[in-house]
Design brief:
Layout lengths: L1 H27 L1 H4 L2 H28 L4 E2 H34 L1 H7 L2 H29 L8 E2 L10 H35 L2 H26 L3 H9 L3 H28 L3 H11 L4 E8 L2 E7 L11
Antiparallel strand pairs: 1-2, 3-4
Helix pairs in contact: 1-3, 1-10, 1-11, 3-4, 3-10, 4-5, 4-6, 4-7, 4-8, 6-7, 7-8, 8-10, 9-10
């Protein structure tokens, strides 16, 4: 099992480093901070980074049998619950933004305004808060006050005194993700129709938007599968403890870490403008960028940080 922990820590360190680079890139460029698609992208980077860090800490504490104060565990569990919903909702919002940009290009500028963007972010965080508030309120109502002073092995399971609490939470999660998956499927179908009807010069952009939506749907599917994991783990627990620990670590890597690690790869590195600026920061402003000048010729230049964003990639 020690090897599982080492692999987990290595994966977490790599993707946290990548996320931090992308967050730095987003914050340093005003053009990114004022563009709806990049703002929504940041709403996956920040929650995903926080969730990866906290869940990794929780898993390591459980593995090494380290007990923490119940109130601290309660706070961490509520934050994890909140962050686990915000990021998928941001993915859905990104799909809707691509749908509007591709299928309603003339209305995109009117819909994607600072006011509507701020309202959308507020609604997104309010929706994400429903389940954490439910978990916190019901748990504090049912848990005896003397238990609040104890030390526990931190898991969200310690907040559930009655079996129906976890059942209600899981049902709400599944409803959330099924609705979100339905919205993503709707945007995919609409963009696919637009791709078929698009002219040859617009087809490249439309097809890229189609692939992005499809990858986001895959992310949501992985996130949805994590709610099946507790049932599988509970069945294995009665068979073999060692196998149970291995399955739990595998589920953590596949259905919690993996969906959160895909966002930088899907959106950040695939986005042309963002990836150019990101590479300049990675190479400290000495990134050599090649772009087409004519149909059969290519020009390469060493971009500095201030000019990288202004180049248009073919």
């Amino acid at each position: 099992m020690e090897s599982f922990v080492i692999i987990q820590l290595a994966v977490v360190a790599i993707f946290l480093y990548i996320n931090c680079l992308m967050i730095f890139t987003f914050l340093k460029k005003e053009a990114f901070r004022t563009d709806t698609r990049y703002i929504l992208f940041s709403q996956t980077l920040f929650p995903d980074s926080g969730l990866i860090l906290i869940t990794n800490l929780s898993v390591v504490l459980i593995y090494y049998q380290v007990a923490i104060h119940f109130v601290v565990c309660c706070l961490l569990s509520v934050i994890m619950s909140l962050l686990s919903i915000v990021s998928p909702l941001a993915l859905v919002a990104m799909c809707l933004e691509r749908y509007v940009a591709i299928c309603m290009p003339l209305r995109h500028a009117d819909i994607s305004t600072p006011r509507t963007r701020n309202m959308g972010l507020l609604i997104m965080w309010l929706i994400s808060s429903v389940i954490p508030i439910y978990v916190l309120y019901v748990s504090l109502f049912l848990i005896p006050s003397k238990f609040l002073q104890t030390y526990v092995m931190c898991s969200i399971d310690v907040l559930f005194v009655e079996s129906w609490q976890n059942l209600v939470r899981t049902t709400l999660f599944q409803m959330y993700f099924l609705v979100m998956f339905g919205i993503v499927l709707f945007t995919y179908v609409k963009i696919m129709k637009a791709a078929r009807a698009a002219s040859s010069e617009n087809k490249k952009s439309t097809n890229k938007g189609l692939r992005t939506v499809l990858l986001h749907a895959f992310q949501l599917l992985l996130s949805l599968l994590q709610f099946i994991c507790p049932y599988v783990e509970s069945s294995i627990l009665h068979i073999d403890m060692l196998l149970y620990l291995k399955v739990r670590y595998s589920n953590f890597m596949l259905f919690i870490l993996a969906p959160r690690c895909l966002s930088p790869l899907i959106y950040g590195l695939r986005d042309e403008k963002f990836s150019v600026v990101l590479r300049n920061y990675v190479f400290f402003g000495h990134y050599t960028f090649c772009f087409k000048v004519k149909q059969h010729s290519t020009r390469c230049t060493q971009l500095n940080l201030s000019s990288a964003f202004n180049y248009h990639l073919e």
